[in-house]
Amino acid sequence: MFKRTLTLGLTAGLLAGAASLVYQKVYAGSLGYDFADIATLPGIAAASVLGGLLAAVLYFLLTRWLGGRGEVLFNFVLMILTFASIVAPFAIKLPLEAEAPELFPGLIVPMHFFPALAWFTLKPLFLKPIQPIPTSA
Amino acid sequence: MKKGIFTVALIATLSTLFAFTLPVNWEIAPKYNLSFSTNGVSGIFKTFTGSIVFDEQNGAASRFDVSIDVNSINTGNGMQNKHAKSADWFDAAKYPQIRFVSKKIVKTNATYQVTGDLSLHGITREVTFPFTFLKNGGGATFGGLFTINRNDFKIGTPGGEVGEVIKLAVSVPVVKK
Q1: Would you say B74 and A96 are in contact if contact means Cβ atoms under 8 Å apart?
Q2: Chain B closest CA to A95's CA: distance in Å?
Q3: For every residue of chain B, which 3-state class applies, written as one string?
Q4: Is A107 in a helix, a strand, or coil?
Q5: Which residues share a beta bridge with B128?
Q6: Closest Cα partner for A133 from A73, A84, A76, A77?
Q7: Do A105 and B78 touch (CB under 8 A)?
Q8: Which of A120, A133, A20 is nearest to A79 (CA)?
Q9: A57-109: per-residue pLDDT in tens?
Q10: Which of B33, B71, B74 is the best mutation test for A, with the most CBs of A within 10 A?
Q11: Phi-psi category of residue A54: left, alpha or beta, with phi > 0 → left and psi -120 to 50 → alpha
C-alpha cells in the first residue's frame, strides 16, 4: 500500500512538473517573460516531485489512522495547503535584475495547483477506493 | 613680425585658458546603478537621464541636471512596486520624475560636494551630498552614498514599517560627449 501510494505521489509530481514546464513555455510565449533564471527546470521538477511525495506520505498516514475519513481529511488538507502556498509567489522578492516582477505570481501560482490536480487525476489508477464513510439511514 | 608673434601668443594663451576652464559634457553610460534601502524595503530605479557638465578643476562651471523616472522603481516584488508608485508613497501618476539640479559644486580633499535642488513628490528642497569622480580611460564614474528623510518630501506617513531615513547609493559611469 505504501509503495503504491509513493508511486502515485512520484508520478503525480512528475506529471505536475511536466505540466508546469509546458505552462512556463506557454506563459513566456504569450507574455514574454519566463523567469527561467528563477523558476529553473530542476527547481520546478524538484518542487513538484517533493509535493507529490509529501502528499503520498500524508495520504498514507491519514488513511491508515482514520480510514475513509482520513481520505476526506486528506483532500481538504491538500487543497488548503495548496491555496495557502500561493502566498509565497506574491511575497517573494526577486533579484533586482529581474524584469516585470509583477508577472511572476501569474507564472508560479498555477504551478502550485498542478500537484494536487495530478494527484486527483491519477489516484484512481493507483489506489483502490477506500470504503465509504457509513451514513446513518 | 610683432603682430604674428602676438597672434600666436594670444592663441596659445586662450588655448591653455580654455583647456582648463571649459567643462566637459558627459554622457550617462549604461549600467548605472541607483539603489535605495531602508528598513523593510530596498530596490533600484532603472531609468536615469539628464545632462552632466563637470570639470574636476572648475566646480563653478560644472552643473548636474538629472532626472529619475519614478515608474522605473523596482523593489523585486510586484506588489511592492505597485504600492511604491501609488498615491500613498511616490504618487508616480502625479509626480513621475525625481529631479536634481545642482547649484554649487566644490572640491573637498579627494571628493566633491554638490548642493542643489532635489524635487521629489512635488516638494523641492535644497540638499547637499558628497560624491566621487573616478576617471577611467576615456570615461569616468560618479559615485555617491547619502541619505534623505522621506518625511521631508511627505513620502508615506511618518513611522510605520518602512524606515524614514533612506540610504541612497549612486554609481553613474559616464563617457565624454
Answers
A1: yes
A2: 6
A3: CHHHHHHHHHHHHHHHHHHHHCCEEEEECCCCEEEEEECCEEEEECCEEEEEEECCCCHHHCEEEEEEEHHHEECCCHHHHHHHHCCCCCCCCCCCEEEEEEEEEEEECCEEEEEEEEEECCEEEEEEEEEEEEEECCEEEEEEEEEEEHHHHCCCCCCCCCCCEEEEEEEEEEEEC
A4: helix
A5: B115
A6: A73
A7: yes
A8: A120
A9: 999 999 999 988 999 999 999 999 999 999 999 999 999 999 899 999 999 99
A10: B74
A11: alpha
Residue B40 φ then ψ, to 5°: 95, -20
pTM, rounded to two decimals: 0.80
C-alpha to C-alpha distance for B41 and B100, rounded to whole angstroms: 23
Grid coordinates given for B58: 572648475
Q: What is the pLDDT of residues B121-165, one digit of tens each?
A: 999 999 999 999 999 888 999 999 999 999 999 999 998 889 999
CB-closest option in B35, B77, B82 to A93: B77
Q: What angle do CA B40, B46, B52 make, to 5 degrees?
A: 120
Q: Are strands B111-120 and B139-149 parallel, antiparallel or unpaired?
A: unpaired
Task: List residues bridging with B28 in a β-sheet.
Answer: B174
The set of residues, in sequence order, having a beta carbon less than 8 Å from that of B95 and lying 6+ positions away, is B70, B120, B121, B122
Q: Do B74 and A104 touch (CB under 8 A)?
A: no
Are A55 and A115 a contacting pair, CB within 8 Å? yes
Q: How far apart are CA A74 and CA B12, in angstroms?
A: 91
- Rounded-to-integer distance, Cα A52 and Cα B32, Å: 44
